[in-house]
Specification:
The chain is α+β, with helices and mostly antiparallel strands. It is about 35% helix and about 15% strand. The strands form seven sheets. Strands 6-5-4-3-7 form a five-stranded mixed beta sheet, with helices on both faces. Helix 2 packs across helix 3. About 40% of the residues are buried. The structure holds manganese (II) ion.
Amino acid sequence: MTDEVQRGNMAAAEGPSFWLGNETLKVPAALFALNRKRLCDRLRGNKDVQKNAIVLMQGGEEAQRYCTDTGIVFRQESYFHWTFGVTEPDCYGAIDVDTGKSIVFVPKLPESYAVWMGKIHHPEYFREKYAVDEVHYKDEITSVLASKKPSVLLTLRGVNTDSGNISREASFEGISHRVIKTDMELEVLRYTNKISSEAHKEVMKAIKVGMKEYEMESLFQHYCYTRGGMRHTSYTCICGSGNNSSVLHYGHAGAPNDKTVEDGDLCLFDMGGEYYCYASDITCTFPANGKFTPDQRAIYEAVLKSSRAVMKAIKPGVAWPDMHRLADRVHLEELTKIGILKGNVDDMVKVHLGAIFMPHGLGHLLGIDVHDVGGYPEGVDRINLPGLKSLRTARVLKEGMVLTVEPGIYFIDRLLDQALNDPSQSCFINNEVLQRFRRFGGVRIEDDIAVAANGMELLTCVPRTVEEIEAFMAEAQGSTKSFDSLASQK
Ligand SMILES: [Mn+2]
């Protein structure tokens, strides 16, 4: 990141930008110009890429709900967004690798569009809006590209290592630069974190025993959209209360955040808003009634300890799997102090006991996708061991990477029973104490961080210690400063 432009801040960037008015963030089109430049620089440095190459990418397509006449709210395809920042569906984009010149191809819309959808814009409108060099209609792709006489067309094709789905287009190694965020991109991620952090705090203020989990989901989304211009969330909201807080991906259609929040429940709310296709991913865990029980406090503080130990250790050059191992070790030490485990922690590590309590990975890359791409480039292999195999990246950290740090301790019946039936693990478990934690649920503390030159920058800002949470919730209960009352005052 030595480039002058990358160091320039956003205010300095005059010219076209994406902005939703009010207090929302202005994102300059220059962000994408820089991404294209980085892509071309990288490709020009690759000896396998011949002179006079052109990159051709396809944007996301408008989709209907199954076979019905109901449109799905469009969200741009992530690679295309990273490269062009175009919000409309059904576009293509091309970049001349040698000159860096960019072309966007837009659909030629039918007359009926003007009746049903609104104004049909001329290509010049898009050229100015996105600050690209040329805009043509999509049906001219062949002739426009042929006139440039490229030696080769580079397309994008690769397998997403998380979903296993094949993205429809070629893995040219240039695009993997997406794991390093520019200062302009970091600014957007700071914003998504700021708004989403505030939205989490609104939820903590508003929650009352007797409410439904989905009311909290709705309030989060309402805040993110009203205040932050975030039409989408980065993923389906997970609003687990009570034992649901141990269900890692709760909130899906089969369990749609529909339980009533009860007195004594621990709430684990994992929600993140998305702005202009940039994600956030934040989890807050707190007691529904605002006061931790001694057991809830003990488990919460064990997780907070591992979170903070990891954050202290993060810096360029550190291997991410080592951070996962560090969190596991802290959990095992703390669970021993609490009395759930007994024996030597080194021996527990040998039988992978940590993965019983934290079956998921410590965290993942974050950017335009909530589980951002580039976790396993060539030469970085998945570690096939309990817990570690769930990591979405095993990379060595570099400045400019953005990741989640999300340790958790969960009491999942299936895994606990499995451990109790395995003599190599059950010998470390004090089952009498463990019984007290059946149906406890789980704790996850998830923050987003950017790797900095000498450490890290914390992007998320929510109450984190037990004292902060209890004080924040106590104050909220006694005040009228809920989002709804603020909204009605406007
Ligand atoms: Mn996450």
